[in-house]
Amino acid sequence: MSSYVGVLVSDSWLQSQFTQVELRTLKSKFNSNKTLLDRFTIGDLPPVFAKLNAFSGTFDEGEIKSVLDKSYSNTDDEVDFETFLRAYLSVQARGVEKSGGTKGSSSFLKTSTTTVHHAINESEKASYVSHINSYLRDDPFLKSYLPIDPATNAFFDLVKDGVLLCKLINIAVPGTIDERAINTKKMLNPWERNENLTLGLNSAKAIGCTVVNIGTQDIAEGRPYLVLGLISQIIKIQMLADLNFKKTPSLFQLVDDTQDAEELMGLAPEKVLLKWMNFHLKKAGYEKQVTNFSSDVKDGEAYAYLLNALAPEHSTHLALETKDPTERAKKVLEQAEKLDCKRYLSPKDIVDGSANLNLAFVAQIFQHRNGLTDDNSKSTSFAEMMTDDVETSREERCFRLWINSLGTATYVNNVFEDLRNGWVLLEVLDKVSPGSVNWKHANKPPIKMPFKKVENCNEVVKIGKDLRFSLVNVAGNDIVQGNKKLLLAFLWQLMRYTMLQLLKNLRTHSQGKEITDADILNWANRKVKKVGRTSQADSFRDKNLSTGIFFLELLTAVEPRVVNWSLVTSGENEEDKKLNATYIISVARKLGCSIFLLPEDIIEVNQKMMLILAASIMYWSLQQQSDTESNVSEDAGDEGDANSVAGDIASLSLDEASESSPSASPSAQDQELVSKADEDEVDGENNKDA
Questions:
Q1: Is 262 exposed, middle or buried (0-12, 13-18, 19+ CB in 10 A)?
Q2: Residue 688 in contact with residue 487, Cβ under 8 Å?
Q3: What's the topology of domain 130-213?
Q4: Phi/psi of residue 41, each to 5°?
Q5: Looking at the domain that runs over 517-629, which CATH code has it been given?
Q6: Mind listing the pLDDT tens digit for each residue in 465-482?
Q7: What 8-state DSSP symbol labels residue 75?
Q8: Phi, psi at residue 678, to the nearest 5°?
Q9: The pTM is what?
Q10: Could you tell me which residues belong to the region Disordered (predicted)?
């Protein structure tokens, strides 16, 4: 595995305006248009820019042309890559003016990574550093580097090798990363450092972080605004971990009836936190409604009422009697410290209305003293609503994280609630099949009229059928009504379609048929056999896959140095299987696979997840070959002979696959017909192996 080198621009200021992910995307667009056109000029830019996701829905070609005309007098001037980037920034800047500033997210977890503003908040930095010092101070590897001095840039240097990132993710969601897969030598070579960063970023996606505009090179360079944006999301996920109804059933005390309870279950964690805060404030006699963690709490009054209500033994009226907001904030923090809430924010942060730090402060109060009783019968009765079986819950988690990893505008907190209006599904379809959605026919939230939701969902079903999904007797109203099994079946087909399309795009030279599940299985078996290993999989339901040995051998086949076989068990008992499964997931992410399965999916041989895991490894492997061959063909000046990727796939036993898979068409394979009459059988029947 070679060390990664990002896209480099000679102008350092221009380089600093983009993340590596953005640079790679824009470089690809630039190269494809330069190849397509004899001369790539300023006049050619408007239609190119109009198709970019960043400007879609903001500008049409005419508006982009108008912006560029102000900066470039001669539209016949030829465009090089740096000119392309500067023109992009000109249009982007106009877009920010047009929208009245950078578009914010409705969820605190979806931290903006815009490249327009690079200023960092020193107070937030100090708070996050204090958090890291507190939670990782006893870590065997990191303790020699801690505590970090928040007044210096040591934090940004320490994060560059990826170890701290991985460790912090495991603090936020324990068990996400098998720490045996982390490279923890004192001096890491570029390969090992890049592996850690890749593992960290893929694992961050797997716990719900939005990392669409962040690449390993950005972290390796210690870009402050991107590093803080990512660390902020990880810490928030940790702080809000108890704001769910399985961990804290007593949250149902916040509502009075079943309908309210269902709505509460669909709220983002920070919205639940606000509801909890207002619940106690109302009981304490506070007359205002807190709707945010910024302007509504900056005078400190709400905090004074909240702490008096939650900790009457420390109750004091000094804070409320204090007129100066800064002095009141000091009193509030002194009272909070008596509840063992660490001081991660200052009085100034409260007065300034720092949303991120105030959110963390309230979440910490909730963790230490939520003021809800555990023996409430209402909590028990509402908790019975959460009757999803384990597999349904795991699939909901997987699809939710996958959707959020795509970088859609709407952050999904609950698949069964957030997808019912059809809008998010349209966003996802537009991501995985660009141009498939006619946005003129779509109804944008908030949607009050039920029939508008049905219209959106009917469009979703129509597009699904165009993509050859199996949707027999399925109508948009089924999605609006929240039919869980049909929704999960649709999302599974959507995820599978996305992966097969990615693989198909890597075999453009082969002129062959569509990639099928049987092709993926054959490829994996051939890879393992080719390196002298003995494991073979009969299907993606093969119970022998539960040991994990086959996937570890496959990972070794595509990258010999990635698996440490001294850590691998025989997989003969449940404990050994769990160790192997956990290691497989971390090694695959370390390699570069973006996957969202859990160890239990491997141990129980969840056929869907086995297919996605194998396909992800296949995609990574073929992508490496494709990149290598592109470099070779550029050096040689001849693309004609650089087709071994196509050859690798074309050499699969396609005829043999067809014989063993009579229903290998994309619309039917691995998915029995999903009809409402048979919906109780969906989970068991929609996974028939090829």
A1: middle
A2: no
A3: Actin-binding Protein, T-fimbrin; domain 1 (1.10.418)
A4: -120, 170
A5: 1.10.418.10
A6: 999 999 998 999 999 999
A7: T
A8: -110, 20
A9: 0.79
A10: 629-690
